[in-house]
Amino acid sequence: MKKSSAKVLLASAIALTLVWFAANFPYGAYLDGMAYRMYASYGNDVLLPFAFYFGLCALEVFIPALHSWKRKAIIAFLIPFTLELLQPLWRRGIGLDVMSADHLGLGTAFDPLDFLAYALGVFLAALTEQKLFARLSFWS
Prior knowledge:
Elements: H1 3-24, H2 27-30, H3 33-59, H4 69-92, H5 113-132
């Protein structure tokens, strides 16, 4: 297997697994109290930007401009950031109901703390790539 194929497979697997987990984890069955409130409010806001980042890692094999971790981090942050800012438009139903932030698991209520959660998710993804995966021979 080529180095680039291994990177695409691993990065895609991480991204798709996190998206699946964010959409299907029944946290109400396992968490209660503060853990329930924190995960229900911010869990997907951390997981999905992490997934977006690794989706971009998979794409960097085909789009060399994405090779810089900084570019991937900015894009992975701007996706949920933009959706968060557009939430009031979806709530009012101004024709943007084809896909909403809620369809992506990012909710429907504006919460400025979501921006911190998005930043945390992107930071953790970049840290994971730079400190953990950079050691893998096929990653660089």
